[in-house]
UniProtKB/TrEMBL annotation:
Entry superkingdom: Bacteria
Compartment list: Cytoplasm
Family: Belongs to the guanylate kinase family.
SMART domains attached to this UniProt entry: GuKc
Protein name: Guanylate kinase
């Protein structure tokens, strides 16, 4: 295992339904010293979402300007909307000697590997294919065609695991969050 460096960007990625959002939420709740990047998007806020907390909601035109100015570590188009990780806040965090965490998709992780090769890429894997299927179908929020598209994408995403520096198997959200925080290192030993 490589040495832990608190001044290193850590990227969490994995297939749809593996629990990335749940792990991120638990880290936000229990490890306030971990800085989580807030992505920019052109999609409209959903009920309960706050600008600057859940996402930076920007116009399509503003997002295009940010791309042209090189303001993103990574960006992608998904379902007609643009999503990206603003470079400035991440760089300021790292320059301060503090850990930074991104929770993004596989495509974004690959872009970060190119734009910031020293980043630590962590793959969040399901305990089994059957468990991933159960999690995706158990959400109850998507139709059969959407679930099949997500399962097809997940099959492909699982093959990318060797591209990552570390793999965490998400047996439980608590265990996965603990393992991820250990990889981040702590700038303040007593921070809990």
């Amino acid at each position: 295992m490589s040495s832990i460096n608190a001044q290193r960007l850590t990227v969490l990625a994995g297939p749809s339904g593996v629990g990335k959002g749940s792990v991120k939420a638990l880290i936000q709740q229990h490890y306030p010293w971990v800085w989580l990047s807030v992505s920019a998007t052109t999609r409209s806020p959903r009920p309960g979402e706050t600008d600057g907390v859940d996402y930076h909601f920007v116009s399509h035109e503003r997002f295009e300007e940010m791309i042209a100015a090189g303001e993103f570590l990574e960006w992608a188009s998904f379902s007609g909307n643009l999503y990206g990780t603003p470079r400035g806040p991440v760089e300021r965090q790292l320059e301060a000697g503090l850990p930074a965490l991104l929770e993004i998709d596989l495509q974004g992780a690959r872009q970060v590997r190119v734009s910031m090769p020293e980043a630590q890429l962590v793959f969040l894997a399901p305990p089994s294919w059957e468990e991933l299927v159960r999690r995706l179908t158990g959400r109850g929020t998507e139709d059969a065609a959407t679930i099949e598209r997500r399962l097809s994408a997940a099959r492909e995403e699982l093959t990318a695991e060797p591209e990552f520096d570390h793999t965490i198997v998400n047996v439980s959200v608590e265990q996965a969050a603990t393992e991820l925080v250990e990889l981040l290192g702590s700038p303040v030993k007593a921070a809990h």
